Amino acid sequence: MNPSNYVMLSAVLFSIGAVGVLVRRNAIVVFMSVELMLNAANLAFVAFARMNGNLDGQVVAFFVMVVAAAEVVVGLAIIVTIFRTRRSASIDEPNLLKY
Amino acid sequence: MTDVVSDTNTGEAIVFWVCAILAVLGALGMVVSRKAVHSALWIALTMINLAILYVANSAPFLGMVQVIVYTGAVMMLFLFVLMVVGVDASDSLIETIKGQRLAAILLVLGMGILLVWGVGNGLAESTDVGLDAANAAEGGNVQGIAELIFTDYLIAFEVTSALLITAAMGAMVLAHRDRWSPNPSQKQLSVDRFRGGQHPGNLPNPGVYARHNAVDTPALLPDGSTSEISVPEPVRSRGDIRPVDHSDMGEVKEITEGRSE
């Protein structure tokens, strides 16, 4: 089976994640969409590693996972902090600078 | 596995199509479902299928890490925060910017078509070297990745550890909340209880009589009147206090007196 199928699947998943980021307004769902995009990139890395026959792609995917985990931890802490002051997890709410 | 592209591996094709369809289904469900908890469950489905695809791509280590880190730790964290923030927080359907949803979907559709088309064209001539040789060189997939991490990518690996510690510190600082007032002491609690004006001890139980012993029946005080606070507050606020039938007591008195004669 041609491994470029994996890369195409990764492109599809990345696009769906982008739709989620642009359309959804619950901050946590937006975060999940970002996670989906990172996962799609990982799938592409793994497929490229297989195509080229060396493990560097897998190492990069591993680093992406670590960075994604750190990003989730800090991002969710920010969401909790905003929720404490604004009583809302909607990304339309923190628009204080507008007025 | 060092075969030419035209060689099709049926087993892998079946795994790919099943998992790819399930993964796309999970991703779509995540974007579409109104409730955030449903979104979390959908994306967990996507991540498990991606783990299977990693294993199919001869990356068993990454497949396991995907299951442990993403479907285990990250999704658990997401669900935990969802419970803190409120499970029933669903999106409103009112658009803040007019036509934003349609524009976003159209733009991303264009981007997706370009990506798939470009990738399909660009990789049509691609080789499939396979990882069997690379995995066997160090004795296995985990050993091969470890060899790379601790030689070529050592600095990146060390920086990663600094990043993880910084993220943990950041989460602790952000989620920590200072107390504005000191903890109340046991003495203070006791003083508040007796000086607060409310009933300090247990409330009296509702009345138990020959004909009624439900919670809506108030207890009788020694002078024959009823005690309001013996009826639970919700029943009291509905006005469901059952009036004590004093004629019953007359009957009881007659019976007992008749028996004693």
Could you please describe the fold and organization of this structure?
The complex is a heterodimer of chains A (99) and B (261). With 99 residues, chain A is mainly alpha-helical. Chain A contains three helices and no strands. In chain A, helix 1 runs antiparallel to helix 2 and helix 2 packs antiparallel against helix 3. The radius of gyration of chain A is 17 Å and the shape is elongated. Chain B has 261 residues and is mainly α. In chain B, 61% of the residues lie in helices and 2% in strands. A two-stranded antiparallel ribbon of chain B has the order 1-2. In chain B, helix 1 packs antiparallel against helix 2 and helix 2 runs antiparallel to helix 3. The longest helix of chain B is centred in the N-terminal third of the chain and has 26 residues. Chains A and B meet through helix 1, helix 2 and helix 3 of A and helix 1, helix 2, helix 3, helix 4 and helix 5 of B.
Strand-helix topology:
The complex is a heterodimer of chains A (99) and B (261).
Chain A lengths: L3 H20 L3 H26 L3 H31 L13
Helix pairs in contact in A: 1-2, 2-3
Chain B lengths: L9 H23 L3 H21 L3 H26 L14 H23 L9 H6 L3 H9 L4 H22 L10 H10 L23 E2 L5 E2 L5 H5 L8 H15 L1
H/E element string of chain A? HHH
Rg on CA atoms of chain B, Å: 35 Å
Strand content of chain B: under 5%
Shape annotation of chain A: elongated
Number of helices of chain B: 10
The largest sheet of chain B, given as strand count, sense and whether it forms a barrel, is: 2 strands, antiparallel
Q: Count the beta strands of chain B.
A: 2
